[in-house]
Every structure is written in C-alpha cells, then in structure tokens.
Amino acid sequence: MVRWQPNARTRLEDAALELFAERGFEAVSAAEIAGLAGLTKATFFRHFRDKPEVLFWGQDLLADTFRQGIADGAAGAPPLELVRSAILSAAPIFDADRHRHAATRQRLIASSPSLNERAVLKRTALARAMTEALAARGVSTRTAEVAGLAGTTAFNAAYTQWATNPAFRGFTGLARRELDRTVRALAELTGPASDDVAPPSPHEPLEQN
Amino acid sequence: MVRWQPNARTRLEDAALELFAERGFEAVSAAEIAGLAGLTKATFFRHFRDKPEVLFWGQDLLADTFRQGIADGAAGAPPLELVRSAILSAAPIFDADRHRHAATRQRLIASSPSLNERAVLKRTALARAMTEALAARGVSTRTAEVAGLAGTTAFNAAYTQWATNPAFRGFTGLARRELDRTVRALAELTGPASDDVAPPSPHEPLEQN
C-alpha cells in the first residue's frame, strides 16, 4: 500500500547530504539514502531521476523562477532590469532551511569532476532560461543571450557567497551587489574606449559668434 | 613493432566520421574506427581519451588558440578588442579540410543528448579560456568573465554558420559580422535606457553671457 509521505523530498535530501558528508558522494547508494529517510528506493527515484539530482533539483526550480520573473516583469522594462527582477524574485528560495546543506553541497561538487560537469550544465540551463524568456518578450536574440549570460555571472557569484558563508544571510543584498558589479562590468566593456560613445562628427565645428 | 603513423589523427577522424554518418555515433566502436583507419585501438586511445573526443579535440586546440591570441594582443587594447583578435586568430583552423566533416559533426551532436552535453561543456571551456587569459592581463574578474562569455556567443554563431553551410566559405567574414552583432548587443544593454549614459548634472546650468 502506497501511503502519502509528508516532505519525502526534504527527508531524502537531508538523508543524502548527511551520508554524502560522512562517506563521499560515490560511496553512497540511492537505496541507502532512502533507507535512512525511512522510504523506499522507488520513492527516491520518483523524486530524483538519478542520484546527482538530489544535489541539483533546486536548479530546475530556479530556472522556472527566472523564467517566470522575466515573463512577469514590467512592460517596457529594459532587458537587464528584467534579469535583475527575475534574480531577486528567487530570493525566497534561499532560506535558512536551504542554507543548512549549501556549504556541504558546494564542497561535494568541487570534489567530483562529474558533479562539477553537472553543475556547469545546470548553470548553462539557468542562462538559457533567462535568454529564452527575454526572447519571448521580443528582446533580440543576441541581446537576450548576452543578458542571460551576464545575469548568470551575477547570480553565480551571489549564490557562491551565500552558500559558502558559514552563517545564514539574506540572498537579496548579495544579489543586488553582484548585479551592480555585472552592470558596471558591461558598462566598462562598452564604455569610454568604445567607438560608439563619442562618434566623430562628420560636420565642421559650428561657427562660434 | 610500433611504427610512425603519418597523420594518424586525421585518418582516425576521417574513419570515425564516415562510420558515424553511416551508422550513428553509439553503434560504432573505437576498435572499428581504428580498423577502418588501418590502425590499432591502442593508437586510437593515444590520440583521443574516449570516443566522443574524436568530435571534440578541435575545441581544445581552439581554447589554446584563444588563450594565446589574448596573451599576444596589443598592450593597452580594451578587453573586447583582445577577444576579437583572439577569435579572428583562430580562422586558419577553419580550413576546407576541417569543413568536410563539420556539418556531419553538427548533426551528430544535435542528435545525441550526451554529445550535446559535451558540446556545452567544451563551449564553457572556450569562454573560460578567454576569461582566464583576460584576467591574466589584469582585466578585472567580472569584466573578464562577461567579455569571455560575450565573445563565445559571437564565436558560436559564426562557427554554426560556417559548419552548416554546405559550401566552404572563410571564417573571418562570419566572425567579424557576429563580433559586431555582439558588440551592438552589449551597447544595447548598457545604452540609452541605462542610468550612466546621461547622469543628471548636480550643477546649475552655466550662466551664458
């Protein structure tokens, strides 16, 4: 008889992180994780398509949140404003409960080439989610692509600081600072040294009377 | 007795693409590829660390070329100029010989989730190569990161057009056009709608005598 499992996902995640922290990612099986959580292996695979997904399912939630945040942005808002509000709209995901495992998760990913590859693929998917949502609002392809990638640099930096800091702190302040840094970096790239800031006038200087 | 194998890598690549095009990537083994090339499986694995690398080894060469191109750029050149010259410096790689297999390679990658994942990881490595080379020249971290990612959007677009066009054409023209598009996209992001283009003056207008 299948019965309803309250918070099965959270229990599986807690159990997984506890076992991974003790014995490393590779040495722990899905069945053991399910066992510690008081659930079956079948339940594990109903929640996560494979073992690494215990560490990465939050990224899919995040991609949906970014997509929705951009779709919901103010009419006429410029692309970087849409990216900013989408990233800030994800702040509630980064609560104290999620912070408990964040540093362990970062350490596990850093210690495994295959987990690191999955992390890179998931980050790429975050950028693509923003790019696609911007394009759906009529932002031109390359601009949407560059804005999605730029937003992801800000998000990644803010997330890493949030996750690796031993004490919990709010995500919003970190994200704002990193978004500002990215906007400054973009301005630096296209700034004073660029051709289109001060185009040479094709006209003679105006006569001064 | 091991004897010198002239152009072993090219022969293996030719054989691999021929077999993959006929029977698909999964159905072909490294031993079969080596057999068709008149070489041994051990020789195959001296040249490629695994079967997918037959399709991706060029990306490592490209990353080295980008790194070197940025390191060799003119002193004082702005980051986007360094990225531009690095990408254009890779043009000789995209010769008629490499073009022979390019469309087949693109089709194979598009047809396989695991090859597609490897392609994403390799593209990420290209961006990182540019970012690291810029940072090594003193460009600040976020600016180097955004410039590397932006350059990669231009490179990817130019490469896709070059690879998928049935007739061979020079890479340089495509790359220039896509680099210009990326620069315009960056300018659009930081352009008129941005706060820092026309800061309101804190001073009273000058008195006009």
UniProtKB/TrEMBL annotation, chains A, B:
Keywords recorded for this protein, A-Z: DNA-binding, Transcription, Transcription regulation
InterPro entries in alphabetical order: DNA-bd_HTH_TetR-type_CS (IPR023772), Homeodomain-like_sf (IPR009057), HTH-type_TetR-like_transc_reg (IPR050109), HTH_TetR (IPR001647), MftR_C (IPR041347)
Cited Gene3D superfamilies: Tetracycline Repressor, domain 2
Stretches for region Disordered: 190-209
A Pfam family that the UniProt record links to this protein: TetR_C_14
Residues in HTH tetR-type domain copies: 6-66
Keyword Secreted: no
Residue ranges: DNA binding: 29-48
Protein name: AcrR family transcriptional regulator
Signal peptide extent: none
